[in-house]
Amino acid sequence: MKKSDFNYQLPEQLIAQYPLPERSASRLLRLDRQSAAIADCQFADFVDMISSNDLLVFNNTKVMPARLFAHKSSGGKVEMLIERIEDTHTALAHVKASKSPKTDALLSLENGAVCRVMGRHNDLFRLRFETEAGLLALLDEVGHIPLPPYISRVDEASDLDRYQTVFAEQLGAVAAPTAGLHFDQPTMDRLDQKGVARSFVTLHVGSGTFRPVRVEDLSEHVMHKEFYSISQDCVDAVNQARARGGRVVAIGTTAVRALESASHSGVLQAGCGDTDLFITPGYSFKSVDALLTNFHLPESTLLMLVSAFAGYDAVMNAYRHAIEQRYRFFSYGDAMLVI
Fold first, then answer.
1. Cα-flanking dihedrals φ and ψ of residue 261, to 5°?
2. Whole-angstrom distance, CA of residue 115 vs CA of residue 94
3. Residue 54 pLDDT more than 90?
């Protein structure tokens, strides 16, 4: 298939700029994989759509306050987006400036801390933050939540909580696993009361998730790499769910990528590493039976993944319906359950 096959026209006013007051107050479009039937529901209905035999797999990554602002010795403004922390003082980052800083250039942050440009690593810069407290403490002090580019406002104090899942634990993402944003503690409690099992994977969502596909031929697209980890406990939980006749329900495309990356041999295996798995229609899923996801950007790799899972025609029809019914799109928007 071609990139243009995944284009659609979205009215700008349907891009959610803020979350709803309550996490679980979103709408939910239900899509049946076999019949392609769609139904308009509320996220509050999600628990009723899940069997006590099922297993929910969440991504427990935690979003870093990864956006930093600084200036060069010349006074020029610099914006940095930490992509991956290498050690207590060093990170790989995207750097945006009127002119790219050179190796050994010093950048001054808002609190007076200094960052030294160590060199380049592909399209990223290796930066060393010269502060006694270390990089994580620096991010906590002056870092900003890295809201996606389609949210046309600066981050606010409320985003520290709302652009983070209630089960976030493993620090390392620069974007939220947005399907998980719909879950609040009362919803988790209702799932517990129903006896629904849950397990966690980690996939640190990178900024590449928003990187546009620049080639028309999808076979030529180079996928960004993201770190993932699957525990033996998760593998056991998946096997137990299958043994009792339950479904493995991935909460978000990032959980799908982690599970499928760990299933490349044909069998889910514990382990960790970097994945550049690019899932497009024709892919044979090995470890996922149902998917909760948000609505994704036109021509994005995430829309291609959902189309591979639910069927291209069914997904594009569901998106047309969602636009007609004025669902809210993208990170702070509504959800879709493919079941």
1. -65, -35
2. 14
3. yes
